[in-house]
Structures are given as C-alpha cells and as structure tokens.
TrEMBL record:
Sorted UniProt keywords: Coiled coil, Repeat
Record domain Nephrocystin 3-like N-terminal: where: 361-538
Keyword Coiled coil: yes
Keyword Cell membrane found: no
Top-level taxon in the UniProt lineage: Eukaryota
InterPro entries hit by this protein: DUF7708 (IPR056125), NPHP3-like_N (IPR056884)
Name by which UniProt lists this protein: Fungal STAND N-terminal Goodbye domain-containing protein
Coiled-coil positions: 298-329
Length: 591
C-alpha cells in the first residue's frame, strides 16, 4: 500500500499553485458540449456507466440481504455533506441511503461487539472515519464537478457511490483503519486546484482527470464489497500476502494523481515562461511609454515656460522697465555699501567713521519694531528712518544711509528662507539719483511676476490694460498717477495671495521724486487691503529732510495703525568714550 510518506509521492506537493498561472483570459471548458467526441474518448459511455452502478447496488443488496425497499440515497454534494455531518455531530443519520442498505447492525451484532470492545471505542472509530471521509469528499468533489459537466449520470453516480460507501462503513462499525488511512493518503495527494473550472483543460489533463474519477469510483465499490464480506476479510487477516483489490486500486489512483501533478507542473512551467516573456515585453513597452511621456512632458513644460517668458516680456515693454537693473541687484548694492561702511571692529583715530555707531544685525534684531514686524501674520509695514553723520561714512561726500544695510540683512535672510521678496534700492551706487513711482513700483511688479509667471496665464490681459493706460504712463507723479501705479501692484498681490505673503523691501525711498508723505500714505492703505498679503519695509534717510513722514496725520478711519511699525529718528551718533573703551564691536557685514 502507498502512503503519503512514500518517496514516490514526495514531489506531489505544490500543485495548488498551478491554477494561478494556468488560467487563460477566456473561461476554459472541460466536457461541456463535448458529449459526442472528447467525453466519449476519456469517459465511459453513460449508459454502461449507469448499468454498472445499478449492478453495484444490487450486488450490495444481495451481500447484505437487504429488503426491497425504495432507493433514496445522497445524489449530490449537499446531501452527502449532510450525511457526513450527522455522523460527525454524533446524531443518527436519516438519509435515504440508510433506508436502502437497511438496518444491518442486527446482522453482525456479535461480530461488532467482538471487534470494537465497547460502545465508546466504536464511536471514536466512526468519528475518525467520518472526519477523514469528509475531507476526502472535499478534495474529490472538484473532479466530480468537472466530470459532471459532460452529458450523463456521472455526477449522480459518483455521489451515490460515495453515499453507499459511507453508509456501509458506518453501519459495519469497522475498527480496521486501513480504509481511513487510504482515504487520507489519497486526500493529501489530490491536486488542490480551486476552482477546478479555471484550470486550462489540455487533452492529457482531461484524460487524467477522467481516469482519476473512475478509479475512485472503483475504489469505493471495492471497499464497499470488502466491508460486506466477512469471510473475505477473515481470509486476508489469516493470509496478509493475499492481494487486495483495494490496495491495487489505491496504487493506480496514486499513479494517476502523480501524472496529474506532473502534467500540471509542466503546464505551470510553460505558463510561467509565457508570463515571463509577456512581462518582459510589457516592461519594455512601459519603459518606452515612460520615455515618450517624459519627452512630451519636457516639451510641454519648455513650451509653457517660453510662453510665460513671452507674456512677461510683453508686460515689461509696456511698463518700460529693464531687468535685471542695478537698483534690484542685491549683491551689487551690498558691494557699494561695504565700501561706504566697511567693517571696523575697533576705533582707529585717523578714520573718523570708526568713532560712529554703525549698523549691524544684532542692533536690528534688538529693535522692538522689527521684532513685531517679523512676528506679525498679517499684512504690515515697517518704516525706519534717520540721519547719517557726514563723518559716519568712509568718505564725507557720499550720501548713503547708515540704515541701508538693514535692507540687505532682511532681503538676504528672506532669500535664504526661500521666501518671495522684491528688492529695490534708490541709491545703489555712488551716484544719487531721483526715481519716479512708476520706475519703483513697476520694477517690484515684474520681480513678483518673474517668480510666479504662471499668474500671467490668466491675468496678462488685465495687467497689460492697466499698464497701457495714459494715467499709468503719466510721469507727472500726480496723486491719480500714484494711485494708478499702486492699483497694478494691488492687483498683482491679489493674484498671488494664495501663495502666501509677499515681501517688498524699498531702500532709500526718500529718493522718490514726488511727494514722499503721500506715497507712504498710499502704501499704508495698500497694506490694509484685505485682497493682499504683503509685508513691506521702507527705509528712508532724513538728512536732507526728504524722508520725513507723519503717520499720525493719517485721516482715513479705515486704516489699522496696529499694522504699522515705525521707528523714526534712528540717527547715527558718535560713540561714547565708554563704548569706545569696550574694544571690539559687532561688524556691519558677515566675513
């Protein structure tokens, strides 16, 4: 007898994975609609098969001396499961199969008592067999369902045979576990293909499945006859070397199942290789598509950037501004300021500027107004103004403000934090010039849009229409002109509000050619607009009294003074003797 532990069966293991790779895109067919050719080639004729089944039942009836009562046995999986469950639940089975076979317990009562030695042991044996049989049915039912698709009584015959077999074994209360062991061994070697109908039905696989189906039917019949023949079992107990048909059929079943596993494994490898080739092709196609998409995306992005540049250039021409320009170049402006206010760590007698207070980062950060401006989450304005001593510069005839380094500190700090900042210095070089509001604000507008050019995709026409109006182009610096220019800045700030605060640093705004106080009043009103989110810094030198402003004179009741941080009169002064005696001091510029 073959068992699951025999070396010849060790390779029958992983067939449960075949179904995943053996499936095709269309639903495979087994024996449906093939009753004239294929089914006849691998399955016995249905008429002969039904006759053999009837002879089997009559033979059992004669062996057990059953009375001629109506035949009602389990003919499908559901009824058979109920029959098995009734035994597993230790209840008396009520299926019709029991009525056919009759009450056979009275025929061999004495034999049963001698064999089992007690009711408890008998019940345990029956439970063991019922469990093994139930698992066997679960494994074999897959083959039955496939075979049942062919025209004929194949499904009914299989389930009736299993039902009769189960009833015979239970009613005979057999204590010999040979059949249970055979069933368990076969159950372990049945291919666990779920669902069976998804397996690719090759001709060879069809033939093997049909063979396994018939062999299990033969096995059940032989086992049933074995259980009904007392003297045959007695002879086998006396002469173990006698051949037993059950073992022979079981060996044939093992061989067939091994061939099914081999066929499935062959199909598995073929299918795996096919899938691998398809996967390689798909990956290559995917890489090609990704390359094409990347090239197309790059082309689109370049085209969009080019269109953004064209729109920005059209607006620049309308505003009559040149970018980049010296006034917006933070590095060049810093370079000039470093010449005017060089680093001095201590007092030098022949250099008068070393005896004056010079701006440095620590001095700025200690300023209350600056701290409040930085911490504010709303639009706000920081205004710093004061005078510069003539000897506080390296050269007396230069006109730069000692507060201008603040504009460099703030702008560079914002740039390091990758925050959007627009910078404009009205005194970036040695020469002191006068600027119009158009020049200053138009430059700021272009700096903002250069960082966010996508805004022009929707707003280019609107901004161009404002820039091309006569009121905007007017250079008389009238109040209407100033408001028209600031209206463009307001619209631009409104368009980028969703991106977060925009920072604007205007150094030496006292160089504005128009009325300084009016421009400052309008900037305050801009900060108060709910459509904008802007943080503005204005630095002015009051040495020539051009940068003076009085925010307390603002008459508009809608202006929120809490958003204005002002430090006026921040004048450069001489250092005291005590300060000079301290030695080294904070530097104006980072080394």
């Amino acid at each position: 007898m073959l068992t699951a532990s025999d070396p010849g069966l060790t390779y029958i293991t992983v067939i449960s994975s075949v179904s995943l790779f053996y499936m095709e895109f269309q639903k495979p067919g087994w024996f449906e609609g093939d009753d004239t050719k294929q089914s006849r080639r691998v399955l016995p004729p249905p008429e002969k098969f039904a006759n053999d089944h009837d002879l089997f039942k009559k033979k059992l009836q004669r062996s057990l001396k059953l009375s001629n009562r109506g035949v009602q046995i389990a003919s499908n999986r559901e009824d058979l499961n109920k029959q098995i469950e009734s035994i597993q639940n230790d209840t008396e089975p009520r299926l019709a199969a029991q009525q056919i076979l009759g009450d056979t317990s009275n025929i061999h009562d004495n034999y049963t008592v001698d064999r089992q030695h007690g009711v408890k042991k008998t019940g345990r044996k029956i439970q063991t067999f019922a469990d093994a049989f139930g698992q066997f049915v679960s494994a074999y039912s897959g083959i039955i369902e496939v075979i049942a698709t062919a025209s004929g009584p194949y499904g009914e015959v299989a389930y009736q045979t299993l039902s009769i077999f189960f009833t015979v074994v239970v009613n005979k209360t057999r204590n010999d576990e040979k059949i249970a062991e055979l069933l368990d061994d076969m159950r372990k070697t049945f291919p666990k293909l779920e669902p069976w109908k998804d397996i690719y039905p090759t001709d060879n696989m069809k033939a093997l499945v049909a063979t396994a189906y018939q062999q299990v039917i033969t096995f059940c019949r032989a086992a049933s006859e074995y259980f009904t023949r007392f003297f045959k079992r007695l002879m086998m107990a006396i002469m173990p070397q006698s051949s037993m048909n059950i073992n022979e059929v079981a060996a044939q079943i093992y061989k067939t199942l091994a061939e099914i596993n081999s066929e499935g494994m062959f199909g598995l490898h073929g299918r795996t290789q096919s899938i691998q080739r398809k996967l390689t092709d798909v990956l290559a196609q995917n890489r090609s598509l990704l390359d094409e998409f990347a090239a197309y995306r790059k082309e689109v992005e370049e085209r969009v950037l080019q269109e953004d540049k064209q729109r920005l250039e059209a607006l620049r021409k309308a505003l009559r501004v040149t970018l980049p320009e010296l006034e917006t170049n933070i590095d060049d402006t810093k370079s000039f300021l470093m010449k005017v206010f060089p680093n001095t760590s201590r007092y030098v007698a022949h250099v008068p500027a070393t005896g004056y207070l010079q701006m440095n980062c620590n001095l700025l950060h200690e300023t209350t107004e600056y701290q409040e401006w930085v911490s504010s989450s709303h639009s706000c304005l920081l205004f710093l103004s004061g005078t510069t001593a003539a000897e506080g510069r390296k050269f007396r005839n230069w006109t730069h403000s000692w507060l201008s380094p603040i504009a460099i500190y703030i702008t560079q700090d914002l740039a390091r934090k990758n925050l959007p900042v627009a910078f404009f210095c009205c005194h970036p070089s040695m020469e002191s010039k006068i600027f119009s509001v158009n020049q200053i604000i138009s430059s700021v507008v272009l700096q903002i849009l250069a960082k966010e050019p996508q805004i022009l995709r929707d707003k280019a026409v609107q901004f161009l229409s404002i820039a091309q109006t006569e009121l905007y182009r007017n250079s008389e610096n009238s109040k209407q002109h100033v408001r028209a220019v600031l209206k463009l800045l307001e619209d631009v700030l409104a368009a980028v509000k969703a991106l977060g605060p925009i920072f604007i640093v205007l150094d030496r705004l006292d160089q504005y050619e128009g009325k300084f106080s009016f421009l400052m009043d309008e900037l305050v009103r801009l900060v108060g607009k709910s459509t904008c989110h802007v943080k503005l810094v204005v630095i002015a030198d009051t040495s020539l009294r051009r940068g003076e402003w009085h925010p307390e004179y603002l008459s508009d009741e809608n202006i929120d003074m809490d958003r204005i941080f002002v430090r006026q009169g921040w004048n450069q002064r001489k250092l005291t003797n005590l300060e000079l005696a301290k030695g080294e001091r904070s530097l104006t510029w980072d080394e």
